[in-house]
Amino acid sequence: MTAVLTPDELEEKLRTHAKQYHSEHPFHQRMNEGQSSPEEIRGWVANRFYYQENIPRKDGAVLSSCPDREVRRRWVQRIIDHDGTTEGTGGIESWLRLGEAVGLSREEVEDSRHLLPGVRFAVDAYVTFTRTKPWVEAVASSLTELFAPNLMAQRLAAFERYYTWIDPAGLAYFRSRLTQAPRDSEHGLEVVRKHCITPETQAAAVAALSFKCDVLWSMLDSIDQAYGPR
Ligand SMILES: O=C(O)c1cc(C(=O)O)c2c(n1)C(=O)C(=O)c1cc(C(=O)O)[nH]c1-2
Q1: Which family does it belong to (predicted)?
Q2: CA of 190 to the centre of ligand 1 (A)
């Protein structure tokens, strides 16, 4: 029988997933070393839009199955961050501006003409996971955000240094995530530490985070195959 972990041990185990995080994917490594072509950057931005678009839908799924009013009160901020509160605000809008900064029209990003089947499958799997699994597992699956700030900081530095053809104003999305992601992952971690107190629920939380690492990795596999060097 597996022993129950203390909250600190569980957190430690979750944090070891940094090694499976998509920052380690060859596509991101090349991007952060300044080796991506404009076509690769454009393909990545266009495809990642599908992820951005679907994040509020998965956060809505978490809200709909979460019975805890205090958690919902904080969680709802994620939807506001991405959707904004008025026309022209929010993370999805910022991503469209990133698209324009790399040379993609709003229309071609919004109509999904560049969306690869593998990226669609991976993102849809994430949304379905959060709709069908217990809400605490859905929360655990969002904990890849523990590792996102490092990658965002690296990415911002790389874009400013190597990809000078991109207007730095287009990078506002990544700057806003530098503060949003730590706030969100701290909350997610608090929920998982509090609720996952049996071997079964702890194993499910670890599996949820592994699954999410696979979602992000698969997205980059598809993008790399379509746009990367052969
Ligand atoms: O660019 C990235 O590498 C990256 C990764 C992740 C992530 O780790 O899931 C998110 C984001 N960005 C992001 O911008 C974002 O809003 C976000 C929300 C979530 C989530 O699962 O709730 N992950 C991520």
Answers
A1: Belongs to the PqqC family.
A2: 18
Total domains in the chain come to: 1
CATH code of 54's domain:
1.20.910.10
Find where tokens 């009013």 sit. 69
Quick one: DSSP state of residue 113? T
Intervals of the chain under pLDDT 50: none
How many angstroms separate the CA atoms of 128 and 207, rounded? 15
Rounded CA-CA distance 149/20 in Å is: 15
Is residue 180 lining ligand 1, measured as CB closer than 6 Å?
A: no
Residue range(s) defining the domain that contains residue 145: 7-227
Mapped onto helix, strand or coil, the DSSP state of residue 198 is: coil
Other C-beta atoms within 10 Å of 105: how many? 11
Whether 22 maps to a domain, the answer reads: yes
What average pLDDT is seen over the chain? Answer: 97
Which atom of ligand 1 is found nearest the CA of 82?
Answer: 16
pLDDT at 1: 60
